[in-house]
Design brief:
This protein has about 90 residues and is mainly α. About 95% of the residues lie in helices and about 0% in strands. The longest helix has about 80 residues. The protein is rod-shaped. The chain starts with a helix and ends with a helix.
């Protein structure tokens, strides 16, 4: 027959195990929330990075266009200066 001490020990052990399961469950829930927040931030970072790359591409094309216009204008200035000197 189980005496009162053994029964108390058994019940306390079961109670501790239940509390441990609850704590582990809460920790996992917290970890999942943090992981979801992290994944959300990574997604936002990737979106911003992609947008930044597109913007840089547009800016680079505009710079190339302006450089080409600059070359053409310098050539035109040189041609006009030669005409004035004649």
């Amino acid at each position: 027959m189980i005496n009162a001490m053994q029964l108390t020990d058994t019940l306390l052990g079961a109670l501790n195990a239940g509390v441990e399961v609850m704590v582990n469950s809460r920790e996992k829930s917290s970890q999942n929330k943090l992981l979801n927040q992290y994944n959300h931030l990574v997604h936002k970072y990737n979106e911003l990075s992609s947008t930044s790359c597109r913007a840089m591409s547009i800016l680079n094309k505009k710079i190339q266009q302006l450089n080409q216009e600059n070359i053409q204008l310098r050539a035109e200035i040189s041609r006009l200066q030669r005409q004035v000197r004649k």
